[in-house]
Design a protein that fits this description.
Layout lengths: L16 H19 L6 H24 L3 H9 L5 H10 L5 H9 L5 H7 L5 H9 L5 H8 L6 H6 L6 H17 L3
Helix pairs in contact: 1-2, 3-5, 5-7
Length: about 180
């Protein structure tokens, strides 16, 4: 086990959809695993019931953050989702719905307007998806790249949709950082 896997080192500020969804997925995997046992016992039945209760609890937690959460995530993951659909989902999503907003920010149909709004989200993965996205506006890419202390400028430098002048400027910054070596 890696040192970072120990529970005492994981100290989230709050339980977001990212965390709750992950827990639920793990519980579903365990339930699926024990359902494959050929031998039925009372102990297995109790474990299955407990897991199903925990899965239902996580689903209620997700719906408490954002009503009808599974349906909204399914919509955001759909290749048929339009930029308008994604914009409406992003507008209605609470800031705590990290997973849904991260998913919207990586969707190929996300509009520049939606991405511009998501660029200010506090979750790094949302901002990183915006910095990589080909539909992100030039102004937002410039804003994300303006902070040399954050890795977002590197992602903007690798974004083929960023203006050539901006990419060249950021590549010079990258070369200068590489030449300077580790601090």
């Amino acid at each position: 086990m890696r040192r970072s896997d120990y529970p005492r080192e994981f100290n989230p500020i709050k339980r977001t959809t990212q965390i709750i969804y992950g827990e639920r997925q793990h519980l579903k995997a365990v339930l699926d695993s024990i359902q494959k046992f050929v031998l039925k016992t009372d102990q297995l039945d109790r474990e299955k019931n407990t897991l199903q209760e925990l899965i239902e609890l996580r689903t209620r937690e997700l719906n408490a953050i954002n009503r009808d959460w599974d349906h909204k995530l399914e919509m955001a993951r759909s290749p048929q989702a339009t930029s308008q659909d994604l914009g409406l989902l992003a507008e209605a999503a609470p800031a705590d719905d990290y997973l849904l907003l991260r998913t919207i920010a990586e969707h190929p149909n996300a509009s520049a307007r939606t991405l511009d709004k998501l660029a200010g989200h506090p979750y790094d993965a949302v901002q990183e998806n915006v910095a990589r996205h080909p539909n992100t506006s030039v102004q937002t890419l410039e804003d994300l790249a303006a902070d040399p202390g954050r890795p977002l400028w590197f992602l903007v430098a690798c974004n083929a949709s960023a203006p050539l002048e901006l990419r060249e400027k950021l590549k010079r910054r990258m070369n200068a950082a590489t030449a300077a070596g580790p601090n």
